[in-house]
Amino acid sequence: MKHTGKVIRVNQKGKIIIPPHILKQIGIKDKTTIEFIATENAITFKKRVLTCLVTGITSENVSEILPGIYLSKEGMEVLLKELNNKNICPSP
User: Fold this and answer.
1) Residues 26, 21, 2, 16: is their CA dihedral positive or negative?
2) Within a domain: residue 92?
3) pLDDT, tens digit, for every residue of 80-91?
4) Residues 35 and 1 occupy one common structural domain
5) I want to staple 89 with a disulfide (CB 3.0 to 4.6 A). Which of 19, 40, 74, 83 is the partner?
């Protein structure tokens, strides 16, 4: 873990501002989903990268279709094709 030497204060609403150069360093940009991990004496965060249940594609472009179930566009197409083939969800 790289020590930045930067000290940040928590404001009255419990918010902090992470310097843009630190966010850029780990590839976090606007609208990126991050995951917080709290331990006894520290809070860390990391960019959340989701994995498609069908294809195994790991990407920021994976959508949560049901709680805990993530699909990529390709995974949705594969699943729909399979459902059509089994006549479970026929195309209109």
Assistant:
1) negative
2) no
3) 888 888 877 666
4) yes
5) 83
